Amino acid sequence: MIVLTRLNGSRFAVNPDLVERIQENPDTTLVMVGGTTYVVRESLSEVIGLIARYRALVVATAHGLPTAEGQHLTLVPSPDEDVPGPNAASPRPGQR
Question: Could you state, in order of their start, the residue ranges of all structural domains in the chain?
Answer without folding.
Answer: 1-96
